[in-house]
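In the laboratory, one determines a bound structure by crystallizing the protein with its ligand and collecting diffraction data. In a computational setting the workflow is compressed into a single prediction: the sequence and the ligand go in, and a structural description comes out. We illustrate the idea with magnesium ion.
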Amino acid sequence: MERSVRESIAGGCRIGIMGGTFNPIHYGHLVAAETARVEFALDKVLFIPTGIPPHKVDYQIADSDLRFAMVEISIRDNENFIASRIEIDREGPSYTYDTLKALHRLFPEQELFFITGSDALRDILNWREAEGIIGISKIIGASRPGYEIGDFLGELFDRYPYAQDRIFEMEIPALAISSTDIRKRIWNNKSIRYLLPEEVRRFIIENNIYISK
Ligand code: ATP
Ligand code: MG
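The predicted complex, in structure-token form:
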């Protein structure tokens, strides 16, 4: 991991981890991270754009450096948010468990909180090493329109009783925004204003990121 990132994390602090493809980053991601920061008293939130997502190999993903740049642009006015290339710089597919293990090794005395939307939280049951993930990091599941949690957590707690102290639901202002929808809007010449930071919108246009399908 980048030295600058390591040095910005003090001993004993509470670290939020916001993973995602960020293709592109939008206000749904930023509101989830900020709400988690405040509600769970996190000292820092690390934004970790994925390298080659294991489950998203077959559709268009903007170049890692461009996705990383868009994350950086979005968070530079928030001193508690940090972007890391830890997954981008790793060879091969990025699994959440591998990333969390690496972070735990780097920050053994810090408490880790993996922040995820309710859609991705559902996938936890299918995640490779779900048990290991829950052991290393607490999980914060942010509400997301269209993906209600329902009985899902009850089912998970039946399987992993100790998870009740490690997985938390978090209500955030509902934003029915997704990167998929933003990409489609660009392809269909619809507006993406106010769905993501204006500087990111400009960056997308200047770099022609989602123009060719
Ligand atoms: P895509 O449509 O390409 O899958 P996405 O909008 O779902 O993009 P991801 O990069 O896949 O964005 O998501 C990263 C994380 O942010 C996931 O945990 C996801 O559940 C969460 N997330 C994304 N959008 C929202 C939203 N609008 N509200 C709450 N959580 C969200
Ligand atoms: Mg997604």
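The chain has a mean pLDDT of 92. Keep in mind that any predicted model is a hypothesis to be tested, not a measurement.
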